[in-house]
Design brief:
This protein is an alpha+beta fold. It contains 14 helices and 17 strands. The structure holds zinc ion (ZN).
Length: about 375
């Protein structure tokens, strides 16, 4: 990788700059006649975790987006814009519908839910265009412009919104990683080896590869243990090998994860507030950031109840104050209406996450979640 990319990497701060960095690496590689570049998105790794492993690549620190969640962060890295612009604020959010009801959309299930709909068996399927994801092209278009063939490697996630999948693969030829979802939560190294194996198979002159390695399901259940260290070290070794073959390589994470505990009083408080009595529709958000859509007359009340109840490990604010926290790169109305009026954001360990069985979670704004590694080789 030539000097200008190094300089660029030193000066960028946001995950949205990954598009520019990866595109520049591709342009340089094409110019120098190498014609290949490898970019790996590693799901769920904190900066601190990468730093402690003393990797061979050069480590930079980036900021993830708000909220710190995969569907938002990876999309932001590929499109080069944050949720203020593309509109995907997390996996569960309100999307204006033609009937203007108060249902929420779950991207991971590709369904729209109203009060009383069962998350597994209920809800109505999305029509495929309602997310209205906005973009100004993608990393893959940038690579095309440099006469490279963009290839994206990612696993099938049954239920994931097709519209979101189309957006994140915009302009790429997609190759499906066959790792079964069940394997990801128990064998992160085996999954990593499968993905790197595909990268090795497809890398060739004029091919530019982006690949997703999903360590997130394992970390949710086990935290950052020796298996995660082994997977990251393997990625580091392989990227060194690619660089030694003259192929510029880099990897970055979408968000880090934080140990989380759910207190029974917090769970009950949330359950009490997320009802048709106080709210227009079900809660949305992403793990350690959750929001409610209260009836207008109850906004103040719901905010105060959460503020009083959640303690010092969370920030509770009105949606309109989000910009003042310095978490957003810009604000484009009315897209933010997708976010609920009352927003609770975890900063410490205690928070009423939707699935209390997870010991590590993300979505909040602790350093462990927001600060992510970008590692460059070659
Ligand atoms: Zn993730």
């Amino acid at each position: 990788m030539n000097d200008s990319i190094w300089q660029l990497a030193k000066n960028v701060q946001s995950i949205t700059a990954v598009r520019l960095l990866a595109a520049s690496a591709g342009v340089n590689a094409a110019k120098r006649g190498i014609g290949s570049v490898i970019v790996i998105g590693v799901d769920g790794v904190s900066y601190d975790v990468a730093e402690a492993l003393h990797l061979s690549g050069t480590l930079h620190s980036l900021r993830s987006v708000f909220p710190t969640t995969s569907v938002t962060a990876f999309l932001s890295s590929i499109l080069g814009i944050g949720p203020e612009f593309h509109g995907i604020w997390g996996p569960v959010l309100r999307i204006e519908s033609s009937t203007n009801d108060d249902s929420v959309v779950n991207l991971l299930r590709s369904r729209r839910y109203r009060w009383g709909d069962d998350w597994v068996t209920g809800g109505t399927p999305l029509n495929g265009t309602e997310l209205n994801i906005r973009n100004q092209g993608s990393l893959f278009h940038d690579w095309q412009s440099a006469d490279l063939k963009p290839i994206a490697i990612s696993a099938e996630y049954p239920g994931m919104s097709k519209e979101w999948l189309d957006a994140i693969h915009l302009g790429a030829v997609r190759i499906v990683d066959p790792t079964p979802a069940a394997m990801m939560s128990v064998e992160p190294l085996a999954h990593t080896q499968i993905v790197i194996g595909i990268v090795r198979d497809v890398i060739a002159p004029m091919n530019a590869v982006w690949a997703h390695i999903n360590l997130d399901p394992y970390i949710h259940l086990h935290g950052y243990d020796a298996q995660i260290a082994a997977a990251i070290s393997y990625i580091d070794d392989m990227c060194c090998d690619f660089a030694a073959q003259g192929i510029p390589s880099m990897w970055y994470a979408d968000h880090g994860m934080m140990r989380t505990k759910v207190l029974e009083c917090d769970r009950l408080l949330w359950e009490q507030l997320e009802t048709p009595l106080w709210c227009r529709g079900r809660a949305g958000g992403a793990g350690r950031t959750r929001w409610l859509y209260p009836h207008a007359r109850f906004e103040g009340h719901v905010l105060k109840m959460l503020l009083d109840g959640l303690g010092t490990d969370a920030i509770v604010i009105h949606r309109d104050e989000l910009g003042s926290l310095g978490l957003l790169e810009g604000m484009a109305e009315p897209i933010s209406l997708r976010v609920g009026e009352v927003v609770a954001i975890a900063t410490g360990e205690r928070f009423p996450i939707p699935d209390p069985n997870l010991i590590f979670e993300h979505g909040g704004i602790s350093e462990q979640e927001r600060r992510i590694p970008l590692v460059i080789y070659g």
